[in-house]
Model the fold of this input.
Amino acid sequence: MNGNEFGRLFRMTTYGESHGEAMGCTVSGVPAGVELSEEEIQTDLDRRKPGQSMITTSRGEPDKVKINSGLQDGYTTGTPIGMVIQNKDARSGKYEPFITAPRPSHGDYTYSAKFGTRNWGGGGRSSARETVNWVAAGGVAKAVLAQSDYDVTIKAHVCQIGDVEAGPVTFEDMLEHSEANEVRCADPDAAEKMRDVADRYQKEGDSIGGAIYFECRGVPPGLGAPRFDSFPSRLAQAMYSIPAVNDFEYGIGRAARTTAGSEYNEDWEFDADGDPVPVGNDHGGIQGGITTGQPIYGEVSWHPPVSIPKTQETVDWETGERKEITVTGRHDPVLPPRAVPVVEAMLYCTVLDFMLLGGRINPDRLDDRPGEYDTAYHPSSPQNDPEDAGTHAKTVDED
Ligand SMILES: Cc1cc2nc3c(=O)[nH]c(=O)nc-3n(C[C@H](O)[C@H](O)[C@H](O)COP(=O)(O)O)c2cc1C
Done:
């Protein structure tokens, strides 16, 4: 069964295994006329890549992206965008003991139980190495939104590691401060304490869980397709696809359990333009499965990384033996710092998909001029070359 596609109109199809030759994806549904470069995609890939600090895995992947389809002279053509990221630092030998003796809490047993076989090096297809593809696709979605008529901004930061929680931060704090420390927390004091916690667990040969808070600003009202393609159901799919996520909530989330209706409900008021606006945003920007135009916010939790050097027990289904194992190698001691760009990427993909589905952005072309050709956004158009100017069949008014 195919579980390698995400999105309805803006759709990524991914491939690759942790220790295979390369990771890659095809992104279809990208409107023509979006300026795009490998450098732009690379900026986000560099934020996700391994080996950034002492609290990330030391696997040495350059994660260089190659765009091999869908661009002409630096602009999207509306045809599928192909992207490849080579795997350069795979060391599969350490995974041989686990071929028939599954590592605790990984996908080793479940992949084998489903397919009867699996690519076992580095966890193969179950590895979070796959998320490099999602960040590349998210970079494309981000570029489309940035060049659209909408002012959508998305940011996430680490709000908890172990028992250390970030203090209250504004969206501006998140934009300004979250990339300034290796934990990616917008509260610098909490970031230091989180770093200490991650260090402590790493030194003890252990790992620890944590959480990310996210916010999407500028998403227009009216997006979402209830019932089964409601905005929160697609958001939940996006978040729960991320490896090791075991909790997602939006709005006031689980605090709703102890909240009275009178406290939760938000009255309606008119905004400065005379449009209805809810007073407050406990609903997290979504009502009835459709966006209200208020900021969409929520939290995502990660269990601790399960590859730890402490001794653990497993069984070998081939030999019938019980075994003690230690999972040595290069692993993250805590996941949210590296997952921030992954969350942002999946949010960009989800929001853009709904913008296309909701007709806010023309799915064929960003300039919203279907049926008109040789328009100025295409730099190789004869219209831009005086010598070829007579060759084009139809000119377009440039108002
Ligand atoms: C960015 C990122 C990096 C990860 N790195 C590791 C790691 O180094 N070690 C580890 O045990 N798990 C890591 N994980 C989580 C595993 O991929 C995941 O726990 C495993 O595949 C089992 O899947 P599940 O936890 O969703 O059941 C990472 C997850 C993300 C999002």
Notes: Residues 392-396 have pLDDT under 50 and may be disordered. Residues 57, 106-107, 123, 126-128, 131, 242-244, 305-307, 331-332, 335, 338-339, 342 surround flavin mononucleotide (CB under 6 Å). The first helix runs from residue 38 to 48.
